[in-house]
Amino acid sequence: MQAAVLTGEALWIGYVNAEGGASQRVIAPVRVEGGFVTAYDHTADEVRTYPLHRITGVAELADDDG
Protein backbone atom coordinates (compact mmCIF):
# COMPACT_ATOMS: atom_id res chain seq x y z
CA MET A 1 0.00 0.00 0.00
CA GLN A 2 2.92 2.33 0.74
CA ALA A 3 4.24 1.78 -2.79
CA ALA A 4 0.86 2.78 -4.22
CA VAL A 5 1.06 6.06 -2.27
CA LEU A 6 4.36 6.82 -4.03
CA THR A 7 3.26 5.72 -7.51
CA GLY A 8 -0.35 6.93 -7.41
CA GLU A 9 -1.54 3.46 -8.41
CA ALA A 10 -5.10 2.38 -7.71
CA LEU A 11 -5.65 -0.78 -5.69
CA TRP A 12 -8.53 -3.17 -5.12
CA ILE A 13 -9.31 -3.79 -1.47
CA GLY A 14 -11.68 -6.04 0.40
CA TYR A 15 -13.11 -4.21 3.40
CA VAL A 16 -15.33 -5.04 6.38
CA ASN A 17 -17.18 -2.13 8.00
CA ALA A 18 -17.95 -1.71 11.71
CA GLU A 19 -21.25 -3.58 11.30
CA GLY A 20 -19.48 -6.55 9.69
CA GLY A 21 -20.66 -5.82 6.16
CA ALA A 22 -18.12 -6.77 3.49
CA SER A 23 -17.49 -4.71 0.37
CA GLN A 24 -14.96 -4.29 -2.39
CA ARG A 25 -13.49 -0.89 -3.15
CA VAL A 26 -11.09 0.60 -5.69
CA ILE A 27 -8.86 3.13 -3.95
CA ALA A 28 -5.86 5.33 -4.73
CA PRO A 29 -3.95 5.61 -1.43
CA VAL A 30 -2.76 9.10 -0.45
CA ARG A 31 -1.33 8.40 3.01
CA VAL A 32 -0.73 5.41 5.28
CA GLU A 33 -0.07 6.23 8.93
CA GLY A 34 -1.23 5.45 12.44
CA GLY A 35 -3.03 2.27 11.41
CA PHE A 36 -5.14 4.01 8.77
CA VAL A 37 -5.04 4.52 5.02
CA THR A 38 -6.43 7.73 3.56
CA ALA A 39 -7.33 7.26 -0.08
CA TYR A 40 -9.43 8.50 -2.94
CA ASP A 41 -12.19 5.90 -3.15
CA HIS A 42 -13.14 5.48 -6.81
CA THR A 43 -16.19 3.43 -5.79
CA ALA A 44 -17.61 6.24 -3.61
CA ASP A 45 -16.05 9.09 -5.64
CA GLU A 46 -14.61 10.76 -2.53
CA VAL A 47 -11.63 10.70 -0.17
CA ARG A 48 -12.10 8.30 2.74
CA THR A 49 -10.03 6.94 5.62
CA TYR A 50 -10.01 3.20 6.32
CA PRO A 51 -8.63 1.41 9.40
CA LEU A 52 -6.01 -1.05 8.16
CA HIS A 53 -7.30 -3.82 10.44
CA ARG A 54 -10.62 -3.81 8.55
CA ILE A 55 -8.97 -4.41 5.16
CA THR A 56 -9.25 -8.11 4.31
CA GLY A 57 -7.30 -8.16 1.05
CA VAL A 58 -5.32 -5.95 -1.33
CA ALA A 59 -4.55 -6.48 -5.01
CA GLU A 60 -3.12 -4.44 -7.84
CA LEU A 61 -5.52 -3.69 -10.64
CA ALA A 62 -4.90 -5.30 -14.02
CA ASP A 63 -3.17 -3.03 -16.50
CA ASP A 64 -5.78 -2.27 -19.17
CA ASP A 65 -3.36 -0.33 -21.39
CA GLY A 66 -2.38 -3.42 -23.32
From TrEMBL:
Domain WYL residues, every copy: 2-58
Source organism, top-level taxon: Bacteria
PROSITE patterns for the chain: WYL (PS52050)
UniProt-listed InterPro entries: WYL_dom
Name the record gives this protein: WYL domain-containing protein
Organismal lineage: Bacteria, Bacillati, Actinomycetota, Actinomycetes, Kitasatosporales
